[in-house]
Backbone:
């Protein structure tokens, strides 16, 4: 599909009418492990589903065009997408990752390092001087970027990092899960690889765990395709079908998430029982100007600190309605979570302190329910923390 078509139209029309047999408007789901050879000894496009599958390819093609990349490999989870990228590394190669990266990414890199399969340094990438020093010192093969960060929504300057990397051979990998191609297009900022946990916004319906690796060029794409097949990381056809169905409404959902997130952030920022709000869409947020420069929207994730400690947090969760107390994010439904004891529980209390994750921090994945209902519920739960 041509890339001068708007993203909304790309997502909606991807692979429509691709069924040559019956002319189905919606691309069929190919639930088959294997494909019959039409002729002995003649190679064909599809032979075995671990290697390639038409339903998975339809999803890959759609996300490739949305991100403005060259090709994509659909994987069974966000973590398998990240694992797939580590296939580019040899035992002495360094990855430089954010000090506050996704917990699963931190665990994967750290465990692989323990087994001698790669080397890793964690840096606060907002400090570009420190990052440049670290790059010069370790000559990494990969610089891993995640922006905005979880759960504090800190933004790092992707283009500035890609400028630093221009002199060397390091690949710039961006985890674009939080914003999706609707609100951030890392290839335009100099990325070589973009990955997603499609479990989150891209599928958006909290019913599929999946991932994707999108690459800028054919060589990287071939390497990713080859290793997904070797390691057996490819996504399931039915999951790809559901994810492509979710993708159809990505732009609609992202705009609704963003609008409501801003409204909630504004209400929280004014509230006497709230100490601090982290949402780059607020003009008072320290990340606002960079987010405005590099992003196309501010997204649907926010976090805030309430007055008090664990007791107040407990009361808040006890009384909150219309939000489910759960990990994960990016679905149509609103979720609240307590990073200190939930998503970031594996970190030591010292590491949590260093990362800025306090006991009174609450994270929200803002859903697309009626804005008024969410605001009312938040205000009520906050009031209950007083008693
Ligand atoms: C959830 C998430 C992942 C991991 O994805 P899974 O689909 O849970 O394996 C990676 N990065 C970010 C930013 C995430 O939010």
Residues:
């Amino acid at each position: 599909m041509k890339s001068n078509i708007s993203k909304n139209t790309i997502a909606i029309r991807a692979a429509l009418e691709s069924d040559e047999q019956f002319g189905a408007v919606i691309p069929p789901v190919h639930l088959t492990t294997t494909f019959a050879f039409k002729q002995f000894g003649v190679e064909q496009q599809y032979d075995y589903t671990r290697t390639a599958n038409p339903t998975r390819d339809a999803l890959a093609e759609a996300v490739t065009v949305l991100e403005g990349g060259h090709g994509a490999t659909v994987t069974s989870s966000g973590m398998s997408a990240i694992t797939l990228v580590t296939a580019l590394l040899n035992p002495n190669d360094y990855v430089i990752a954010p000090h506050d990266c996704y917990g699963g990414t931190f665990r994967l890199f750290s465990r692989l390092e323990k087994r001698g399969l790669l080397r890793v340094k964690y840096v606060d990438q907002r400090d570009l001087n420190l990052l440049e020093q670290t790059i010069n010192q370790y000559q990494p093969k990969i610089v891993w970027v995640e922006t905005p960060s979880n759960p504090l929504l800190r933004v790092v300057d992707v283009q500035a990092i890609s400028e630093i990397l221009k002199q060397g051979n390091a690949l710039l990998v961006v985890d674009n899960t939080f914003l999706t191609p609707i609100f951030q297009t890392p290839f335009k900022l100099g990325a070589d690889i973009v990955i997603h946990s499609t479990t989150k916004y891209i599928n958006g319906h909290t019913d599929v765990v999946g991932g994707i690796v999108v690459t800028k060029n054919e060589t990287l794409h071939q390497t990713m395709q080859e290793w997904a097949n070797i390691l057996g990381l490819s996504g399931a056809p039915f999951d790809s079908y559901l994810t492509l169905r979710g993708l159809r409404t990505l732009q609609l959902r992202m705009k609704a998430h963003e609008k409501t997130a801003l409204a909630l952030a504004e209400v929280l920022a004014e509230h006497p029982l709230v100490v601090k709000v982290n949402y780059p869409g607020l003009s008072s947020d320290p990340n606002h100007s960079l987010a405005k420069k590099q992003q196309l929207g501010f997204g649907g994730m926010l976090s805030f600190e309430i007055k008090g400690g664990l007791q107040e947090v407990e009361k808040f969760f006890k009384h909150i309605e219309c939000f489910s107390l759960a990990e994960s994010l990016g679905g149509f439904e609103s979720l609240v979570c307590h990073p200190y004891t939930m998503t970031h529980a594996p970190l030591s209390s010292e590491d949590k302190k260093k990362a800025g994750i306090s006991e009174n921090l609450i994270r929200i994945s803002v859903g697309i329910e009626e804005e008024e209902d969410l605001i009312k519920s938040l205000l009520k739960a906050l009031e209950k923390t007083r008693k």
Residues 262 and 374 are 12 Å apart (CA to CA). Residues 77-79, 102, 104-105, 146, 150, 175, 177, 197, 199-200, 209, 211 surround pyridoxal-5'-phosphate (CB under 6 Å). The first strand starts at residue 71 and ends at 75. The first helix runs from residue 7 to 13.
